[in-house]
Structure formats: structure tokens, C-alpha cells
Amino acid sequence: MNEQVNDDLLTMTGKEHRQVLKRLMSYTRFHIPLLTLTGFLVLFVTIIDVVSPLIIRKFLDDYLTPMNFAYKAITILVSTYIGLALAKVIIWYFQLFFFQKIAFQIVERIRIDIFSKLHTLGMRYFDKTPAGSIVSRVTNDTEAIKDMFINVLSTAIQSLFMLIGMYVAMFALDVQLALYCLALFPLIAFIIIVYRKKSSKFYRAKREKLSQLNANISESISGMSIVQQFNQERRLAREFEVINKDYYDVGMKNIKFNALLLGPAIDFIYAIAVVIILGFFGAESLIGPVAIGTIYAFVSYFDRFLEAIYNVMERLAMYQEAITAAARVFRIMDETEEVPAQEDVADAKIDKAKIEFKNVSFAYDGEHDVLKNISFTAESGQTVALVGHTGSGKSSIINLMMRFYEFERGEILIDDRSIKQYPIRELRQKTGLVLQDSFMFYGNIRDNIRLYNASISNQEVEDAAKFVQADRFIQTLNETYDHKVIERGASFSSGQRQLISFARTVVTNPQILVLDEATANIDTETESLIQTGLKRMRAGRTTIAIAHRLSTIKDADLILVLSKGEIVERGTHDELLQMGGIYHSMYQLQNSGMDV
User: Fold this and answer.
1) Stretch 312-334: mean pLDDT
2) What is the number of other CB atoms lying within 10 angstroms of the CB of residue 286?
3) Which domains can be identified in the chain, with CATH numbers?
4) Where is the chain membrane-spanning (predicted)?
């Protein structure tokens, strides 16, 4: 996936480049009034920059050169110059403030859009995209977009006004000399085109290396316990060093290129322009007197003209980086691997919670089936257990049941209606899921149980905890239900986290209960505490349970034994033991103390 994205970005055509820019600029439509006001402020600053050299020109030509010290006139000129400089400082402040305000609001909107989009994507997308790469797009790439609006957009508008203003002023001073200077413009345009074309490759590569860097860091931190347990620190450090070195190399190439085409190239053009200007006025001086103030004004205008060009070229780097970053962000926004779509029949409500699989086959990659013709029925209030060795397809059944993945072959029915016809909100509200690895959010125990649902009262939270026997250990904590939960609930044992996860499910009172090896990580003592709670949870609810410990599903109404994506045995606990097949062997192994 990463390699594909990298290749696509490095071969982005001019048309795609323009499309990304157009889409990026569409976010400014909400800020037209403020942008217009800021444009006028830039215009005022440009006018001041055009007028200021004229004031100095007048002082040089009319007062200093002829030694005409008319103090009143000179005082007016000085006051006007200082007043314009002060006005420029004030206007410049508001100009920068408004541009930054617009930039922050635009990036805030983009981040909301991409974050919202991520929550609509299907599990297939997250299966093939590293978490660190996604984080990089939401944070680093949007930050690059912000820098573009703050620096590039403001500089582009200001430089455009400056270029026009400076050349108008130069033509007003001397048309012939302005035309001579205009002859340098093709050289300037050539440098800009070369810089844009070459620098874009460096910046695209740089953003990709940064994304890989973030992905590597994220993966290392997430799996730190495994890294340290298996002495993988050196290997990961070497991998990080390689990626970091690649990032450094790309950055250095970009720096060298900037050092060649930014300052030195512009300075060389400025030197040529000064030679042209001085040569022109030198020739003029052979014919008659030359106004020193006019020479100063002309050199000053061309200096500011080239300064505007330099600023544009310097910001081109940020522009290239922002376009690359925006392309990466928009790729997520345009991602079609979304959560399976529902038909949303208006009156579709789960009532009895009868579940039926009819000849369901499924492949994660679209080619290799992990489920093959799965058929079974869980009547209302019944418990159906799924057992089998790793990779047999148990979790895949749960994934389809929860609508995490789309299936195209076979049918899954709830109350004799296709699962695709229920609104996703109805499915989520009526189904409770408990996973093997329970995730806990930063906060406190109470909020982790009700997941910040304000409609669930404190009493309901405590009743749910008591129901699954979680209240026993919660009451031993200093702040009981207000006890702080650090990231991922690291301060709790796996059994305690699972008990809280059970309480989180019970408090919503679901009609369908899905248990994905929910007791696999719980010690024997904790397991004995929740067995009673589990029986009460299953009472009156249709339950689909993946079981690692066969002792926990002895009383299931139906046990399905899976192997290589197929149901190879089915029946009750006693019936399967009498068959003497796979289930019997698994049960014998567990009872003899061996790990399955």
C-alpha cells in the first residue's frame, strides 16, 4: 500500500496537481469576506512600498543634490515617510493576523473532514494501511497545508501586487529602462519553472519518508512490551536508523537544490539588473545630468521586484510540500473502502433477534475464501458457540455479523430479514460485542463503562458492574468508579479490563451478544467470578460466542466446529463428545492440561 501511494505521488501529473490545488482552494469559499479585506490590506502595503522610494527620490533630487534645505518641506517629507512606515507596520500586523486566522480555520475544517472520514472507512482499509501513516496524514500533512495558507497564499498575493506595483512604478520613471529590465523576465521564469519541477520530486519523497518514519515509531511504541521481551531493540533501532537516514538524505538533496537556485540565482539576476541600470544611467550622464534620486528609486524598485520573486520561489518549497500533503489527505477522503452500506429499510427493527447464516462464503482479499458455505441458525435466546483452531474462520463470522466487512455470497438474516436492510445504528444498539483484547480509553472507570453516553445514569453503570462481578474489584480502588484509567488501561490486569468490558456491554442491554474469546485472557479466579454473570447476560439474549476454553460453552444450545473455513461438526457438547471427532480431541487435550 505504502509503495503504491509513493509511486502515485511521485508521478502526479500537472492536471492532477491543478485538481489538488483547486480542491484545496475550495476551502477558502467560507472565508471570502475576510480574504477580500486581507487583499485590500495587502494592496495598501504595496502602495506604501511604491510611494516610499518616491519620497526619498524627491528628497535626493529636489533638496539634497541642489543643497536646497527647505526645512518645512523636508519636515513634511520626513513626517510622511515615517507616517507611511508606521501605517505599514499596523496594516502588516492585521494582514498577517487575518491570513493566519484563515489558515487555522481551514486546517481545522480539513482535520475534521479527514477524521470524520476515517470513522466511515471499513476494516479492510485499516488492515492494509499502517496506523502511523494515517496519523501522519492527519497531523503532519495538515500542518503542511496550514503553512501553505499562512506563508504561500499571503506571499503569493503580496508578491503579485508587489510585482505589478514595482513595474508600474518603473515604467512611470523610465519606459526604456523598464523594458530593458523586462528582458530579464524570461530568465526569471525559466528558473521558477526548473525549481518547481525539480523541487516537487524532493518534497514528495520527503513526505513519504516522514510518513514511514511515523509509522515505524508508532509500531515500535504500540508493541513496546513485545519489543523488549524478545530483545528486538537493536533491530528496530537499525530499521529506524535506515529510514531516518533516507529522510535525512532526501532533505539534504532538497537543501542543496534550494541553495543553488534560490539565493545565488536571484542574486545573479540582481547583479545583471544593477549593471543594466547603472550602464543605462551612465550612458545618459554623457548626454546630460542624471537624477540621483531616480537611480535610487529604480534600483530600489527592482530590488523589491526581485525580492518578491525570491519570496515566491522560497515559498514554492512550502507549496510543493503542501500540494503533496494535500494529495495524501484527499486520498483518504476519496477512499472507497468504506463501512458496508446498509439499505436502511425504515421499519427494520430487531425484535426476536433470531440469527441465520445461509451459505455464506467470504474472502478478505476477494480471492482466497476464509469462509466456505457457512450455514447455521441461532434461535431467539439461544447460544451458538464457535470453536476451532487458529485460522479456522471463527472471527470472520463475527466480523461479518458485526458488518465490519461486506460479503457478497450467501445471506445473513436477523428475524428473517437481511442484515443489510437494518440501519447500522439499529444493529449497533441491539448488538453487544466483547473482544478478547478489551480496549480502554483514557479517563475513569465510570466513563469507560458508559462510553460518555449521557443517557446512562451512574446507577445503571454500577448495576452493570455488579451484574458481571466487576464491582468487587472496583470497590477496592481509592476512587472506586472515578478511579483514573491511563492509556489502554495499563494499570489494570487483563481480567479486570475484561470485566469492565463486560459491564460496558451489559449497560446497553443488547438483544444480541457477541463474545469473541471473551474469557481467553482471564485467570481462573476471575473466570469463576464472571461465569455467573455470563449466564445471566446470555439469558433472554441470542449469543454468538467464540470459545477458546471449551469448559465455558458446555451449556451452549449449538456448538459449531470449524476447520479451514468450513463447519465440519455441529451439535451440543454431549453430542460432539460422542462423535469422537475434532471437538472430542480438543476437549481431551484441554482436560489433560495441554494447550490447544
Assistant:
1) 79
2) 7
3) 14-333 (1.20.1560.10), 355-591 (3.40.50.300)
4) 32-56, 76-99, 149-171, 177-195, 259-280, 286-306
Of 383, 408, 413, 377, nearest in space to 567 by CA: 377
pLDDT score at 269:
76
Q: Determine the average pLDDT of the residues in 537-561.
A: 81
DSSP structure class, residue 553: G
Question: If 0-12 CB within 10 Å is exposed, 13-18 middle and 19+ buried, where does residue 564 land?
Answer: middle
Mean pLDDT of 334-354: 78
- Parallel, antiparallel or unpaired: strands 409-414 and 417-418: antiparallel
Which residue intervals of 546-581 are DSSP H helices? 573-579
Compute the distance between CA of residue 477 and CA of residue 101 in angstroms, rounded to an integer.
Answer: 46
* Whole-angstrom distance, CA of residue 38 vs CA of residue 32: 10
Nine-digit cell at 529? 467470578
In angstroms, the CA 258 to CA 195 distance is 8
DSSP bridge partners of 546: 386, 516
Phi, psi at 411, each rounded to 5° = -140, 145
Q: Which of 79-83, 103-107, 335-339 shows the lowest per-residue confidence on average (mean pLDDT)? A: 335-339
Which amino acid would we find at residue 64? L
Lowest average pLDDT, out of 19-23, 128-132, 144-148, 569-573, goes to: 128-132
Residues 292/65, Cβ–Cβ less than 8 Å? yes
| Residue 267 DSSP symbol | H
Q: How confident is the model at residue 549, as a pLDDT?
A: 75
- Contact criterion met (CB below 8 Å) for 398 and 553: no
Distance of alpha carbon 461 from the chain centroid: 34
Q: Give the Cα separation of 11 and 14 in Å (integer).
A: 9
Measured distance CA(469)–CA(492) in Å, rounded: 15
Q: Which triple of cell numbers denotes residue 475?
A: 470497590
Distance of CA 553 to the CA centre of its chain: 42
498 membership: H or E segment, kind and range:
helix 494-506
- Residues 365-374: contacts with CB within 8 Å, 24+ apart? 369/565, 370/396, 370/565, 371/396, 371/397, 371/400, 371/565, 372/564, 372/565, 372/566, 373/410, 373/566, 374/410, 374/565, 374/566, 374/567
Tell me how far apart the alpha carbons of residues 159 and 334 are, in angstroms, rounded to a whole number.
34
Distance CA 78, CA 59 (A): 9
What are 510-524's pLDDT values in tens digits? Answer: 888 888 776 665 666
- Please give the Cα distance from 28 to 39 (Å, whole number): 13
Q: Which of 435, 357, 380, 386 shows the shortest CA–CA distance to 545?
A: 386
DSSP letter at 487 equals G
Residue located via cell numbers 503579485? 160
State phi, psi for 359 to the nearest 5 degrees. 50, 50
Which residues, listed in sequence order, are joined to residue 388 by a DSSP beta bridge?
562
What lies within 8 Å, CB to CB, of 215 at 6+ separation is: 2, 130, 131, 132, 133, 136
**Residue at grid coordinates 483452531:** 389
pLDDT tens across 471-500, in order?
Answer: 778 888 788 887 787 766 666 766 777 777
